[in-house]
Amino acid sequence: MNISRFMPGPTVRWPVGGDMLRWLFCPTPQAVAFALRNTIASIVALAIALWMELDSPQWAVATVWSVAQVRRGESMSKARWRIVGTLAGAIAAVVFIAAFPQQSWLFFPAVATWIGLCSFLATFCLNFRSYAFVLSGYTCSIIAVAAASEPDNVFFIGISRATYIVLGVVCEAGMAMLFTIGLPTRARATMVAQVENVLHRLAVLLREIVLHDRDTLVHAGEFSDMVVSVHQGLEFPAIEMGRQVHAGDHARAVLAEVSILVTRLVGLSGGAERAVLADDGVLADTRGQLLHLCDRLAACRLKSGALDAVYDQVVHLRALFARRSAHGRQEMDRITHGVLAATMVDLETALDHCHAIFSPPPHDRFRFHLGGHRDIRLAFYNGLRGAAAIMLAAFVYECTAWPGGMGFIAITTLVCGLFATRENPVVGTTRFLSGAVWSAIAAGSLDLWILPYLTDYEEFAFVLGIFLFVGGLAKCNRGTAGAAAAYGLLMPNLLMPGNQSRVDEVTFLNAAFHTVLAVGLSVLVFRLVLPFRARDERLRFGMHIRGELRRLCLVPLPPSPQWWIGTSVDRIGRMVRHATQEKDTTAVAGIRLMLMFSSVGLNILLLRQLKRQRRDTVSDVITALLRALVRYRPVSPRGIAVVRATRRRLARMEKADPGNGRLLEVLACLDGISRTATACVAAMAAGVE
User: Fold this and answer.
1) Rounded Cα–Cα distance for residues 648 and 655 (Å)
2) Taking the domains of the chain in order of start, what are their residue ranges?
3) Where is the signal peptide (predicted)?
4) In Å, how far from its chain's centre is CA 216?
5) What is the pLDDT of residue 14?
6) Any idea what DSSP says for residue 451?
């Protein structure tokens, strides 16, 4: 799959050896600033923790690097949800210790169930809201495990843990404020650039649809993946701009409208390998008008006044296509121009929201949420894996009476929770394990060879800062970010600095061994226990969406087209990403099929909207059709036959009343369902997953 079509221009290729260490010897200014500010924040947090004589000051350093993100909005979101998750986990730990004192085989299953529940719920959330759930899971485990041998002190251990978290968050936030200048302005520029990129890629895709590119549906899937990525990233510049600014809501509305536009055009062509617009007469002129719009759209900029020319052309095309729809000589010409007029309405609405991002209207209170897919089976699997890992670690501890067993359980919980937040939990596990090994090497070098020769905190802070700075540079590099995440989280924990103590060789080796072993166990669990497979996900999505199509015909309160498109785009984006990660070339047909299913669902919802406009003979015909589709399924030979029979009946009505725009819209929806469902049935008969 050629996702490079939707990525920025060419990049400079370094030699293999130089490219591997480029992040270290030639870092970007942003990477240096990120590493420097978080290194300083870590040193300050550690100094305060030592001054307060906290029992585990290393957790303050680990919190700084856990919260630290390259974008300020990401750090702010993660810090807020980290505090929420920590408090929930501390409360759960107190409850479990109080409920099961000295009863290990009631205590461990309770903790495992809690971890499984948190991982299950985290799968349904986006960004750092999911992090709050998994954090509440492994915070509960860390506090409860630490308090298992002294249950009377569980409250104080929980307070101590919360203190580390708040201290690390405050230090990271304070340092980031010093390094951040003009944050709202830069956040708006970032959001504008993201939306501009979506419009430019839309121009590329629209040109391919008009020119009948054979890979249009594949590129539409890649476009969906890009829309999902932009949607997930919009939350953070919106946070940086402030809650009172609704630019993020307008940007999400832009994504919804352009996604509906693309899905309409997929329904217009029906997924068939043929041109939407022919090379004759009025349709040839229509194609020329659309190609000129593509040129304008590809060069548009979201600046004050810069969108006016594009907007005026879209308004002109909407009126032109509406006239051709009303006065066309042939039925198919009228239907085609009716659909194109509707797409221009979608694009006009999207451009209105683009203008609101840069120049918000007075007293703007606009709110918009783009729907997403909720995978219950993946959530169940994530919860089951986390619970199984905890039970296995507890079994090892109970059978061996290993002194480091409690730490082994705590780290296993932490790593399983982090993996559970990912769509594909298997991806990145090896890099995380390599980061754990590097954290043990770095902490061992400090503990065993350097710290014995240092006499004051200033010397220690300077040496530790070098190790942390390197980790910060690695976190800004895509190839080493996964390992750097483990390094920043685990290295301070292995270092175990204290005011009156120094880690000896035996203590360090035991801690390093159970840490690396816990990460290795977590990696094995996610790779061996119900492992994630992109092919199984495609099959699951296909079964789910076929059931949803029947429910769309039946439910009393159908969802909005925006919700349906948001959910469908989320599914398609996941399929594209996971197929790319696994280099699965067989996924192309499945992605095409999912796009066509999405188009069928959109046309069903549009039919239901037309049905609600007024009560007449047309609405009665639509009602009878929807009831038949519930019985026979929309994507089936009998369902297609029912749609075609209904279309013939309404076509006779349209001939008797050729100026009826509502009938043309209904016929366009029926054509979209018929053609696209026919292509779906043919693809499934050919064995497409």
Assistant:
1) 11
2) 25-181+372-528, 183-358, 534-686
3) none
4) 24
5) 38
6) G
Query: Which residue carries 């708006």 as its tokens?
Result: 188
> Contact, 48 vs 54, CB < 8 A?
no
CA distance 143 to 86: 10
pTM of the model: 0.82
Residues 71-112 pLDDT 10s: 777 777 778 888 888 889 999 999 998 888 778 788 889 999
Task: State CA 233 to chain mean position distance.
Answer: 8
pLDDT of residue 177: 75
Return the H-helix or E-strand segment holding 441: helix 429-444
The angle at the Cα of 656, spanning 654 to 658, to the nearest 5 degrees, equals 55
pLDDT value at residue 470: 93
User: What residues in the chain have per-residue pLDDT under 70?
Assistant: 1-19, 180-182, 243, 269-280, 304-305, 659, 688-689
Q: Where are the beta strands (DSSP E) in 176-293?
A: none
Token pair, residue 235, equals 């939350």
Buried b (16+ CB within 10 A) or exposed e, 114-151: bbbbbbbbbbbbeebbbbbbbbbbbbbbbbbbbbbeeb
Cα distance between residue 513 and residue 554, in whole Å: 58
The reported pLDDT for the residue numbered 265 is 84
Cβ atoms of residues 398 and 409 within 8 Å: no
Sign of CA dihedral 683, 538, 432, 4: positive
SS3 of residue 124 by DSSP: coil
Residue 632 backbone dihedrals phi, psi, to 5 degrees: -100, -5
Place of tokens 């536009």: 261
pLDDT at site 689: 59
Distance between CA atoms of residues 359 and 247, nearest Å: 9
* Token pair belonging to 305: 């006044």
Q: How buried is 279 (Cβ within 10 angstroms: 0-12 exposed, 13-18 middle, 19+ buried)?
A: exposed
In whole angstroms, what is the distance from residue 512 CA to residue 490 CA?
Answer: 9
Q: Are the CB atoms for 511 and 548 separated by under 8 Å?
A: no
What's the per-residue H, E or C state across 392-404? Answer: HHHHHHHHHCCCC
Class of domain 183-358 as given by CATH: mainly alpha
End-to-end CA distance of the chain: 17
SS (H, E, C) 214-235: CCHHHHHHHHHHHHHHHHHHCH
Q: What is the pLDDT of residues 232-248, one digit of tens each?
A: 888 778 877 876 778 88
